[in-house]
Amino acid sequence: MKLRDDEKAMLDGAQGPAVSKAMDLLVRYGEALGAECLIDTNNVAGTIGATTPFLRQYGDRNGGMDAVFSEFNLDSAEVVPIPRVKVFSSHLQQGIDPKHAARQGVSEDVVRIYERGQTYSSGLGVQPLNTCTPYQVGNVPVKGEHCAWMESSAVIYINSVLGARTNAEGRESTGAAMLTGKIPYWGLHIDDNRRGTHLIQLDIDVSSTADWGLLGYWMGEQVQDRIPVIEGLRHQPNLARLKHFGAAAASSGGVEMYHLVGVTPEARTREEAFGGREIESVMRFGEAERRWAYEQVNITARDAQVDFVLLGCPHYSLEQIWEVCQLLEGQRLSANTELWIFTAASIKQLADQAGYTRIIETAGGHLMTDTCSAIGRVIPKGTQVAAVDSAKQAHYLPAIMGIQTWFGTTADCVQAAVDGRWTGALK
Question: Quick one: which of 234, 253, 312, 422 is 20 to 30 A from 129 by CA?
């Protein structure tokens, strides 16, 4: 790997041992990937801290949070003092919502450790966004901007919708990028690797958020980690629809980028989306494919009684919270069903001011922040059957938590929370 003079200096220890170890990690990582050089980045979204039991115990045994960062963000068994981050860095979702810890079944000891980790990461200069959707709360990279982001649904969103550039990074590479402002130049940082590979032609209208989730889930299964180009849209999708679409595709497959002809910034035309690359395959999405996707995301669901309704994967926008309130206001949840809605803390503040939190709580629901059930592994005690409006959550929740999960529209889910029963269907 070819290093510039400033990169060689960091590797040689000119900026301290932590930066040296971060650069060493990035060089080894880049060489394994076949990258010829590093690229500058001023936008990193990753995770540090120790909210899981294993990491908590590791930090306690080995000297605290610097030990956790050294081992798990820098791949270093040697504990080194960690300096403040060099570039703008955002923290992704965490393991708990400290204000709803008791309801989530989280002990006070864990909350104290969470708060200690929050203080540590903020002290390093990491922005405490604590969300899987940084682009909803102020971190909005622009077209062509080189980033180093974790979180599959965020990666696919900024690559595709915003035209920013990142690969699906990990805890280690983002931790190293925070300290160096560097990331290996490979994959989706390079123009040629962002061209479309497969063409998907729509034979039916895709309009609702649930429909976009189904399209994304089917698409991920079909193309896996390639770059699909979708043609034939009849409606302009909004942020929520594109968010759920990408999250689903990244869950059922490994899609990190897509093009919507006439919508996304690198696909004003089909020709631009493919950039001269030969189309590898042409597929069509119609009623049969939509039905298949619906059956797949509902494959674990059998019992109609619903114990738990989960909304907010990826984290809900203010518009989605408003939509739920339109459906929920004046109603009361079933005594046997919990409703948890997950969002970013800064969005919840707006929801509080707008009166949306009051509407949700008056109905018997809860607006939570910082985590979700799949990441935090937090669900109401005794839950056997859940309902979600996220194809991503329908994919992961049964495997992670061992529960049945229904997928449907937001309206289906709100109705299930009120009735305590699932009555949704593919319409």
Answer: 253
